[in-house]
Amino acid sequence: MMSRSVIGVATLIFGLTAEAQDVSQRIESYLQTFHIYRLFNGSVLVAEKGEVIYEDGFGRPNMAWDVPNSSHTKHRIASTTKQFTAALVL
Fold first, then answer.
1. Where does residue 31 rank: exposed (0-12), middle (13-18), buried (19+ CB within 10 A)?
2. Which of these, 48, 42, 49, lies nearest to 71 by C-alpha position?
3. Is 58 exposed, middle or buried (0-12, 13-18, 19+ CB in 10 A)?
């Protein structure tokens, strides 16, 4: 389910041609909808040509802690990078 979310966000971001302000608002709206339906919980940073155009956090990094996610929250990514490494090797 999460991979579809990531693909959807990537498609949205790369398909946009509007100004940075408009892009930022569209990203916010898109991610907020995913968060409301409990399909996304994490941190987001979007950059275009080396310039950050959007950064925010949604939900909590650990539901037991009452600390919200931010764009600076450090997450454990475990083995999620293995699939990308395998694709690069192929």
1. buried
2. 42
3. middle
Structure tokens at 40: 């996304």
Q: What is the DSSP string of 6-52?
A: HHHHHHHHHT--S-HHHHHHHHHHHHHHHHHTTS--EEEEEEETTEE
DSSP state of 85: H
**Over its length of 90 residues, how does the chain's per-residue pLDDT go in tens digits?**
555 555 555 555 555 445 656 888 999 999 999 989 988 888 888 988 899 999 988 888 877 777 888 878 787 777 778 888 888 898
State phi, psi for 28 to the nearest 5 degrees: -55, -50
The whole-number pLDDT of residue 29 equals 92
Tokens standing for residue 85: 């490494």
Say if CB 60 and CB 69 are below 8 A apart: yes
